[in-house]
Amino acid sequence: MVALSQIRRLTIEARSDGVDKVARDLQGVADGQRAVAETGALMATSEDKVSKSTLSVERQLQRLQGRIDPLFRATRELDSSMRLLDRAVAQGSITETEHARALGLVQTHYERTAVAAKNRAAGAGRSVDYRNLSFQLNDVMTMGMMGANP
């Protein structure tokens, strides 16, 4: 019979072959993922800057076009006025009758501006034609005075 006071001794030995290599490999993967995440963050920041820059240039071009092109400016004003009138009638600030009257005035103003812009563009073309015609007449007169047949 075994006495209760008997002590058992158990010794466990373990070896870790290759565990260090696996740990290094996993650390390398983690470092790679961290680098990819940082690169992605930098790319997102760069894309945001490019996007903001593009929007800024587009707004600047629209402002420039609005300054130099009266038809473009009139179209923008027409759109803005129509949106304002639509909001006013939706909120009950004006009646449908007032809305129709104001919209008619806005459209009339736009049409007048459009006609004036087209006439101005056509007139500019005619003035260039007249200027060229005067140059040609000057050439004919000069050639005639020099004794050449026109």
Task: Set down the secondary structure blueprint.
Layout: H1 19-68, H2 70-91, H3 96-145
Structural class: mainly alpha
Major beta sheet summary: none
E-strand count: 0
- Give the uncertain stretches in residue-range form: none
What's the pLDDT, averaged over the residues? 77
Global morphology: elongated
Euclidean distance between termini CA atoms: 145 Å
Helical amount: over 70%
- What integer value in Å does the Rg equal? 41 Å
**Which sequence of SSEs, written as H and E, runs from N to C?**
HHH
Quickly count the helices. Answer: 3
Strand percentage: under 5%
3D structure, described in words:
- This protein has helices at 19-68, 70-91, 96-145.
- With 150 residues, it is mainly α.
Short description, anyone?
With 150 residues, the protein is mainly alpha-helical. The protein is 81% helix and 0% strand.
Key features?
elongated, 3 helices, about 150 residues, mainly alpha, about 80% helix
